[in-house]
Amino acid sequence: MKTVDFEDYLQEKHSEQYIGLDDDMVDDFNDWLCDLDPQELIDYGQKFAIRAFEFAILKAGQTIDGVKVPSLCDLEWNEYIKEAKQSIANLTTTL
Question: Is residue 1 part of a domain?
Fold first, then answer.
């Protein structure tokens, strides 16, 4: 996951559609952000949460910044992951 926080995610989404000079990008981002309607912001938030959760699933069992993420070896955890992946798939199709 390249993005660390929600603002970085929004900047990434803005840059995907931005056409212009790099010098103007920051100001254009601020204008773009102010012009988003509440539902668009909610949609971006949900997509960011899905991406962050998928990243957490991928990193399960590894150590991140000195913190051990629960292992996928635990059968109960595996069932939770399966359900979570299905929920993500369902959310992704509705967005």
Answer: no
Nearest-angstrom CA–CA distance, 53 and 22: 31
The answer to pTM > 0.70 is no
Of 45, 55, 38, nearest to 13 by C-alpha is 45
Q: Tens of pLDDT along 20-68?
A: 887 788 899 999 999 999 999 999 998 888 888 777 777 666 666 676 6
Instruction: Please give the structure tokens belonging to residue 88.
Output: 């993500």
Residue 81 sits at the vertex; the CA angle it makes with 75 and 83, to the nearest 5 degrees, is: 110
Residue 33 sits at φ, ψ, to 5 deg, of -65, -40
Q: How far apart are the first and last CA of the chain?
A: 20
Q: Is residue 79 part of a domain?
A: yes
34 found inside a domain: yes
Torsion of CA 21, 23, 29, 32, to 10 degrees: -50
Q: 38: domain range? A: 6-94
